[in-house]
Specification:
Layout (H helix, E strand, L loop, with lengths): L3 E6 L3 H12 L4 E7 L5 H8 L3 E5 L7 H9 L6 E6 L5 H9 L3 E4 L3 H13 L7 H18 L6 H11 L4 H8 L3 H15 L4 H10 L4
Parallel strand pairs: 1-2, 1-3, 3-4, 4-5
Helix pairs in contact: 3-4, 4-6, 7-9, 7-10, 8-9
């Protein structure tokens, strides 16, 4: 079985050494290296090819959040577990949004590190309920921004079909509804988009990237 390759970024010397010692104790873990800053994170991650990166959030010169963004610009596969002193802060939230896989409180490293690593490698995202709520709320806001006119999924489907130049008859056949149902949906779409014709609706949809 292939050993798990782990790379560590932590500016506190004592914690850095503690993490290294902890990782060396595990037979199925290959401890790669530790770094006190992330200024060369792109070259280091590309060179070491880790399976897991343990990343401190507050680092000198460049934050762990910025480092996550840099890693994700060329590697979406490596699991990145943030290490934080605080449980419920916006830095953790920003790190998750930047592409971190989850986070672990530093006070729980000795007892929960390997469970957290197993969780992210299994597709989970270890985080507190309050941070999870912040992430879900942000996703909802993002979805609203992408759909500012509150079009229903069916209306979005109809609008896409309109933009493709399909007739009402063809739309009805494709969506397996009556032509009257298509007309009702189209009328609702016009009202929501504040337009009066198919040309206006399609033009607005393409201009504002609604489809």
């Amino acid at each position: 079985m292939k050993a798990l390759r782990v790379l560590v970024y932590e500016d506190n010397a004592m914690l850095r050494e503690s993490l290294a010692s902890l990782l060396r104790l595990k037979d199925d873990v290959q401890f790669l290296d530790t770094y006190e800053n992330v200024l060369s994170v792109v070259d280091q991650v590309a060179s070491h090819k880790p399976d897991v990166v343990l990343m401190d959030i507050d680092m000198p010169g460049m934050t762990g959040i910025e480092a996550v963004k840099k890693i994700r610009s060329f590697n979406n596969d490596v699991a990145i577990l943030m290490l934080s002193v605080f449980d419920d802060n916006h830095h953790v939230f920003d790190a998750i949004c930047a592409g971190a896989s989850g986070y672990l409180l530093k006070k729980h490293i000795s007892s929960r590190l390997f469970d957290a690593i197993d969780e992210v490698l299994s597709g989970g995202a270890p985080m507190s309920p309050s941070i999870a709520r912040m992430v879900i709320s942000a996703m909802k806001t993002d979805n609203q921004n992408k759909n500012p006119y509150a079009l229903t999924p069916r209306e979005q489907e109809m609008l896409r079909s309109l933009a493709n130049g399909n007739s009402y008859k063809l739309m009805a056949a494709e969506l397996e509804v009556s032509i009257d149902t298509v007309r009702t949906h189209i009328k609702k779409i016009y009202e929501k988009l504040h337009v009066h014709s198919q040309t206006e609706a399609v033009s607005k949809a393409l201009r504002e990237r609604l489809v």
